[in-house]
Write a structure and sequence with these properties.
By secondary structure, this protein is α/β, with parallel strands linked by helices. Helices cover 39% and strands 13% of the residues. It has a four-stranded parallel sheet with strand order 2-1-3-4. It is globular, with a radius of gyration of 14 Å. The chain binds 4-nitrophenyl phosphate. 4-nitrophenyl phosphate is lined by residues 18-24, 55, 136, 138.
Length: 163
């Protein structure tokens, strides 16, 4: 689907980005790592996450996201960090969860080449999916967290099959 965006060389370095780096992007990191491990392809990837904000630096993911992820067999142990300009050289694909994340990332991209590494997670949603972004679950209930995990599972499966 998106092979022209994905580098030939391995490992492919993927950074997932949201606002807080305690809900959506550490979940995306956990989902992707589990899919990769399930295929025995850990050596082909570097997978990390970061936030555009700095409210929760050093924290584990939100306890609600950890509970919902654990129900699916995912243990989320990432420690929150803020995205940096160095990430644009350290990663091949930088994948934002929503339009606001994408705008914040574009604002700090150090060059046009760096900006070309930016992608929206929704690019890997199934065509029939009605969402065009991964909605922020922070002020939502359980359904919000389950929806995020469903969308991330779908998108990560499609991303992995593209690589
Ligand atoms: P995330 O969710 O961007 O998916 O990690 C949020 C987490 C924290 C806040 C906002 C969104 N916050 O405002 O603290």
């Amino acid at each position: 689907m998106f092979n022209n965006m994905i580098p030939e060389r391995k490992p492919v370095r993927i950074l997932f980005v949201c606002l807080g780096n305690i809900c959506r992007s550490p979940a995306a990191e956990g989902v992707m790592k589990a899919l990769v491990a399930g295929q025995g392809r850990e050596e082909e990837f570097v997978i990390d996450s970061a936030g555009t904000g700095r409210y929760h630096i050093g924290d584990l993911p939100d306890h609600r996201m950890r509970i919902h992820a654990r129900r699916r067999g995912l243990e989320l142990t990432h420690r929150c960090r803020q995205v940096t300009q160095d990430d644009f050289s350290d990663f091949d694909l930088i994948i934002g969860m929503d339009a606001s994340n994408m705008a914040n990332l574009r604002a700090i991209a150090p060059s046009p080449e760096a900006e070309r590494k930016l992608h929206a997670m929704a690019e890997w949603f199934n065509p029939a999916t009605t969402y065009d972004h991964v909605p922020d679950p922070y002020y939502e209930g359980s359904e919000g967290f389950e929806l995020v995990l469903d969308l991330l599972d779908e998108a990560c499966r499609n991303l992995l099959s593209d690589i």
